[in-house]
Every structure is written in C-alpha cells, then in structure tokens.
Amino acid sequence: GVRLLLNGLCTNTTVKSLDLKGNNLRTMGAEALGKLLRQNKSIRSLTLEWNSLGMWEEGFSFFCQGLRANNFLQRLDLRNNQINHQGAGELAMALAQNTSLQELDLRWNNIGLLGGRALLNCLHSNKTLKRLELAGNNVPGDILKAVEQALDHNQVREAILSEAQNQVNILSKEVLSLKDEKNKQFMDFVDTVDKQKEERARSEKISAARVSQLQEALDEQYSIMNSLKTKLQMTEAALALSEQKVHTLGELLSAVKQEQNSVAECHSRELQQQKQEGADREARLLHDLSAASEKNLLLRNQVDELERKCKVQQDQLFQVKQDLTNTTAELKLRAVEAEERLEMEKRRFKQSLEDMESLRVKEVDRVAQQMEASERSMHDRIQRLEAIRISLDEELSQAKAAALADRGRAEEELIKVRSQVRLEEQQRLEHLEEKLRLMTESRDEAQNCCLKQKEMVAEAQAKAKQLSLYADGLKRRLEELQQYVDRKEEEKVTELNKVKVELQEQIGHLEAERTAQDGLREKIAALERQLKALSSNHREALLDKEGEISLLLEKLRMKEAEISRMREEEAQRASFLQNAIMAYVQGSSLGTHSSRK
C-alpha cells in the first residue's frame, strides 16, 4: 500500500509535507521512498519515525541514493529507525552531495562512534544543514560538540552569505535606481533640448514671417512708387498741354504784332501818298489825319490792352513757375524725409537681424557647451561607477577567495549577475552613445538651419541694396521731373498721409516684435535657471549616493574583518578538534593493546 501511495506521489506537485510515522516500512517501502525523493520536486518535509528502516541495508542504501539526488527536501525525521553505523555512513555520503536539507532528526538510533564520525566528516562538505539531532545514539560528547560547532559554522556562514546577498541586492538596486535617475535626468535634458529646438523653430518661423512682412511692405512701397510715377506722368502731360497753350498765346501775340506793323506800314504809305498829292488834298488829309489819329488812338488802346494781357499772362506764368519751384522743393523735402525714414527702417531691420543672429549664435554656443559639459559629466560618472564596480568586484572576489572553497553556486550566481550588469551597462552605454550621436546630428542640423537663415538674411540685404539702387534711380528721375508738378498737391498730401499711417503701423509691428523678443529672452533665462537648479539637485543626489556607497564599503570591510576573525576561530577549533581526536585515537589504541594483553 505504501508503494502504491508513493508511486502516485512521484508526479504530484501540490503535497508539501508527508508523514509516514509508525507504518512498519521495509525494503520495498525504502525503495519506493528513494524513487519518490528522486522524482518528486514539491515535498519539503518528510517524517519517517518508528519504521525500522535501518534494519534493511539495501533498502536504506536505495533511500540514501534518492536523498542524494534530491535538491528540494528541507526537513527529514528518522527517529527510532534502528540505523547503525553503516546506515549512518550511507546517510553521510548522501548528505555530502545534498544541497537542500536543513534539518535532520536521528535521535534514538544505533549510530555509535563510527556513524558520528562519518556524519561529522560529511559536515565539512555539506554547507546547508543547520540542525542535526543525535541524542540517544551512543555518540561521544566531543563528536557531538564538534557537530554542533560545524552546524553553528554553517548557520553563521549562511547568515553571512544571506547578508552578502542582501547587500549585493541592495547595491544592485541602488545602481539600478541611480541608472534610472540618470536616464530620467538625461530624458529631461533631451526634453529641454527638444523644447529649445521647438522654440528655435518657432523663432525661425516668426523671423521668416517678419521677413515676409517686410518684403510685403517693400512691395507696397514699390507699388506706391509706381503710382507716384504714373501721377508724375499725368502731371507731365498736363504741363505739356499748358506749354502748348502758352505757345499758342505767343503765336497770337506775334500775329497781332505783325498786324500792327503792317498797319503802320500802310499808314506811312498813305502819308507819303498824301504828301506827294499836294496841298489840294490838305483838307482831306487833315480830315483823314484826324480820322487816322482817332484810329491810331483806338489801335493804341487795343495795343495797350494787348500788352496788359501779355503782362498778366507773364505774371501768371511767373506765378506758375514759382508754384512749380515751391512744389518741387516740397517734393524734394518729402522725398528726403521718406528716404530718411526708409534708411531708419533699414537700419532697424538690420539691427534686429543682427540681434537675432547674435542671439542664435549665443544659444547655439550655450547648447553646445551644455552638451559638452553633460557629456563630460556622464563620462566621469560612468568611470566612477566602473571604478566602484571594479573595487566591489575585487573585494567580493577577495572575500570569496578567503571564505571556504565550497561556495561554487554563490560564485556562479554572482558571476552571472556581474555578466548581466556588464551587458546591461554596455547596452546602456551604447544607447547613450547613440543618443549623443543623435544630439550631434541635431546640432549639425541646427547649424545648417542657422547657415540657411544667414543666407536668407544676405539675400534680403541684397534685395534691400537693389531697392536702394532703384530708389536712387527714382531720385534722379524725380530731379529730372522737378519742373512738371502742378494741380496734384492735395492728392499727393493724402497719399503721403497714407504712407505715414502705413509707416506708423509698420513701426507698431516692429515694436510688437521687439516685445515678443524680450519675452523669448525672459523664457530663455527661466529655462537656464531651471537647468541650473536641476544640475544642483543632481549633484546633491550624487553626493548622497557616494556617501551611501562609502558607508556600504565600510560595512563590507567590517564584515571582512568578522570573516577573518571567524576563520581564525575556526582554525583554532579545528586544531583543538584535531588534537582531541588524536588524543582519543591514541587512548583508544592503548586500550585495545591492553585488552589484547
């Protein structure tokens, strides 16, 4: 029945404790127990009290083989099983290779001296057994004391290993936390850089919009100049018409003069004819002379009137010329004022562009310096962490080399952890290098954008120069057309008022842009303050972590001192046990010789 039960439990994964106390198990039951211990991986406690397993040597050896292969059982109760020194030897061989059993109860058996020695020898290789009960087995007291010392040594070693593992876990957690904090800080820095890039892109867009607005304003001024040209052409046409009228009036005056000359010639001819006729015609002539004198008076009056009309027309022409000179002078003054305003606007635009370029250059330099400082700080921190890790590895290796040689599994686990940490560090370093490469690429892109903006500014300056040359040509044309301005003063005044209003609007836009630039400068200063605060907090956190690491190193040194002291005590105990065993062996050999005699 026990065999069937144990065969069923071989594949069970839920039973944790098995109690078979007082079931009179024999060879078949012991073999079934050995098979169970080889195959089952869930049972942690096994109670076999009052079963007399030690009476059946083959079955008990099979049971011990199963215990040797098992790595999951933690508690085993073998009280009152009639185990002799041979069974104890088999059990000691199993315990020498078992790495999971922590409690073993062998009370009230027949182990004796040889079995006690075998169990004591197995404790040199077994480092997991913490409790071993040997009461009621006829085992000498010194062996019991040695067994207790070995168990205490195992307990202390287990405690030290657990503390070391805890410290390693704590250090690994701290390293991970530091790495997480660094990653967070790096991500925050990347976010700040992205925000700065976005702000820079916004400023570039704003500057491009401003340039486009200025270009539109220049185009509007160009259109205004074209309209002025058309108006000047209209005034030229009007002046040409007035000149034609003056020419016609001059022709009329010349015709009147010719008529007067012809009339005077006729009168002189008539007088000569009258003189030649003689005295007969004197009365007629007197009468004719009176009539001619009257006619002459009338003609003189007409001539005077014509002369007065000519003088009036000359006065009008003189006034027209004066008006033309006044209007040309006023136009010159207004053109000079417009040119001065254009030059002032050009200077302001150039100054704003220069300020923007200087600010961009400063921002690029500052970002580059911050990047270089962050790269240096990251390299320094990585080197410090590597130095700390190397020092910790050396100290742990020294502690392990100084400890007992049977910590293979712990060393393998530590080596795996180190390899994982190194791989993770290498991966993170590669990740950081990729991020740095991306940052350098972004910086190059920003520099290219700055160069493009500089080229745009140069193009704008070239366009401004072309416009200035075009304005110079217009000035020359205005100087050539100074004599052809009349009748359009009111329209010109209104147009000049419009130009003034537009210039005031442009000045208001420029002032708004200046206020926006001041706001951007304040934002940049606030961001720099935030970066300084973050760097100071990061430095304080690093100083705190370094202090904690120094404290942990001091604790490790204290533990190494304790381990060295425990080694010395264990060496003293081993020498004491060796002396006691040698004395006991010598005493036992003398007793056998005396009994033989």
From TrEMBL:
Residues 225-569 form a coiled coil. This is LRC45 protein. Keywords: Coiled coil, Cytoplasm, Cytoskeleton. The keyword Iron does not apply. It comes from the Eukaryota. It comes from Emberiza fucata. One of its GO terms (cellular component) is centrosome. It is found in: Cytoplasm, Cytoskeleton, Microtubule organizing center, Centrosome. Pfam families: LRR_6. InterPro entries: Centro_Cilium_Assembly, Leu-rich_rpt, LRR_dom_sf. The keyword Lipid biosynthesis does not apply.
